[in-house]
């Protein structure tokens, strides 16, 4: 399913107006229609898979980004001072959460973690506002497989003096990521599991 560029109707404003239960269901629809594919794929972890989730098809979708932000905000602890994630997958997620947080009257800045240090200027790994030492930061991720990608962001943030004890993902592939986070003392939750996506994908196809 491709994205329509036609002028939005009232029915297309659901991401901004629906209750959270409806929002989650409609976001699941988007993931199954736009992001989930079956075939033969090699993942960033090097593992082979019979399916692939291209999360950016949803995180860069206007309704998708808004719905994601509205669903993630209530999951953030009250003491959250920023959201952050490893580029590129987390960039639209942390940006959407930061923007929507203003409308929810709880403005939260976003940080983007580079995979390699910036090659000029400040040579920084972390882009975004400088926070107080010890600031509480939640790491966001689109799809978790082994958990290593988000762990890179956790490490960079801790090296910068921030406190990180939680990772939240859009989709948990249930291939060891949750267990890995538990083993290193991180809290972890996901909006969807791969089982949620696969069951719904088969229902609508």
UniProtKB/TrEMBL annotation:
Catalytic activity reported: orotidine 5'-phosphate + diphosphate = orotate + 5-phospho-alpha-D-ribose 1-diphosphate
Enzyme class: transferase
GO BP, one annotated term: 'de novo' UMP biosynthetic process
Binding site for orotate: 145, 173
Annotated GO MF terms: magnesium ion binding; orotate phosphoribosyltransferase activity
Cofactors required: Mg(2+)
Protein name: Orotate phosphoribosyltransferase
Protein's organism: Richelia sinica FACHB-800
Lineage: Bacteria, Bacillati, Cyanobacteriota, Cyanophyceae, Nostocales
